[in-house]
Amino acid sequence: MSNNRGSITKGTEVRTERKEAFIQRHFSYKECTQFIPLDGSTNAQNRCCCGEKKFHHFVSENYRTNVQKWSPDLIETIGPTNAYGVIDFYSGAHQLNKSAEGLLGAVNASNAWIISHGLQCDLTKIVSDAISRSEINSFGNDRELQKIVCIGITPWGYIRNRSDLVHSVCYRSPQPQTQYRINNTNSKMGPLSLNTNHTHYILCDNGIRNNFIGSGVNQFRMKFESLLSASPKKGGCGIPVVLLIIGGGYSTLEIAAQRLQHGVPIVICGSTGGIADILEKALQFRNSNKALKGLCQEQANQIYSMLQNLLIEEAEEVTQEYSAEKGFELIQTILSNEDFVSFFNPDCIISNNSLDRTILFSLIKCMSTNPIDQLMVALKFGRIDVVNRQMFEDNCFSIRTSVNRAIELVIIEL
Fold it and tell me: Mind naming one GO cellular-component term on file for this protein (predicted)?
């Protein structure tokens, strides 16, 4: 008995290996190998007689083209099971919370601003709650409490109880204040209350009421962010801007494609639901077959299906302009600019994985090919480690020499 046990660690590893080998030897998984639609149609979106859609079917070496009627013998054993082990249950809210915490870590590390639509909806409430927890935890620390700047660019016509924000003509206070009633009802069909944890609001009014999509707020926000990111020589502020996608709906897909075309990098937080999951899947497909320079038909069908499901979920919010076809074109636009796209997985166990690092690297790789400019951005964020790990992977001597000279100049100036 003692010989079989050996050391505890070694014995555990052996038992684990034996357990996995036993499972794979005795358990397998099966797939339907012939798509026979229930209604006789060849539409890839219809379900097969086995109950699954076409893109989930396994193409067997014994594929038969003359099969007209489905039967159970079309289900074949494909190989050893790939579904075993310990189950770690989590929900979409869990992933959203982790991404929100990571966002605040990035903000605290870089003194960045958060820009949102400023309304009391699911994701904004999650970020808002994370801000509250962060400020409560910081209260009483030795360091000075730093208020997180959170700017809401909000459509005036979509604010619930917006009449509370209107001052009377006779108001004469040099610093006007108003009391605003919050309503936590989250209706997809109507206006929403302002979120309380924003420090500033920019209220946009184009005359449209009770319609977020038609309010023009996304167009205004893009111009605002372009002004922030433009160099001072071009009349801008020279502040780097990154679009962070956590969840998101169909309109987020439009925004992402527009931002990429204007050179704004985007960071996708995986497994947070909505359009983030669709983009994650599309990027996985793209990286798995780069030789094809696109998606194969079955992969495209799966993306179409995911977009259609998203449109069904947002049925009360979509317009006639929204369609799976247009959404697929927007995804192709994003894939064609994949150098400006970064991906962050909140559950990744890699030691150097962090949202602030992912955001910084997305800025560094997009803003300039000049290593000196990249170094200055890293210094602003206080993350020189990103430069060491990402910029110098090729160990290019000329780049190292240039950066060393830049560091010497910085030290001399200090």
Answer: plasma membrane
What is the 8-class DSSP label of residue 112? P
What span, in angstroms and rounded, lies between the C-alpha atoms of 414 and 408? 10
Q: What is the pLDDT of residues 326-342, one digit of tens each?
A: 999 999 999 988 889 99
Task: Indicate the pTM of the whole model.
Answer: 0.69
Contact 242, 229 (CB under 8 A): no
* Residues 6+ away with beta carbon under 8 Å from 107: 113, 114, 148
Show Cβ contacts of residue 236 under 8 Å, excluding neighbours closer than 6 positions: 226, 227, 228, 229, 230
Q: What is the pLDDT along the chain (414 residues), one digit of tens a residue?
A: 334 444 344 445 545 567 888 888 888 888 888 888 876 555 545 678 888 777 677 666 566 667 778 888 888 887 888 777 776 555 556 666 777 777 777 777 667 888 999 998 867 777 777 777 766 665 555 455 567 889 999 999 999 988 888 876 555 555 667 888 888 776 666 789 998 888 899 999 998 888 888 888 999 999 999 898 888 888 888 888 999 998 888 889 999 999 998 888 999 988 888 999 999 999 988 887 766 677 888 889 999 999 999 988 877 566 667 889 999 999 999 998 888 999 888 766 554 567 777 888 887 777 665 666 667 667 666 666 665 655 555 445 455 555 566 556 555 544
CA distances from 68 to 31, 41, 65, 174, 193 (A): 18, 12, 9, 81, 57
Other C-beta atoms within 10 Å of 333: how many? Answer: 16
Q: Are 154 and 180 in contact (CB under 8 A)?
A: no
How many helices (H) and strands (E) in the chain? 13, 8
Residue with tokens 């009483």: 140
Torsion of CA 309, 313, 317, 322, to 10 degrees: 0
Q: Which residues contact 206 (CB under 8 A, 6 or more apart)?
A: 157, 215, 216
Domain boundaries, the chain: 2-80, 91-241, 254-367, 369-413
Map tokens 């995804």 to a residue: 331
Can you tell me the distance from the alpha carbon of 279 to that of 303, in angstroms, rounded to the nearest whole number? 9
Q: What are phi and psi of 81, to 5 degrees?
A: -60, 140
Who's near 305: CB < 8 A, 6+ residues apart? 45, 53, 55
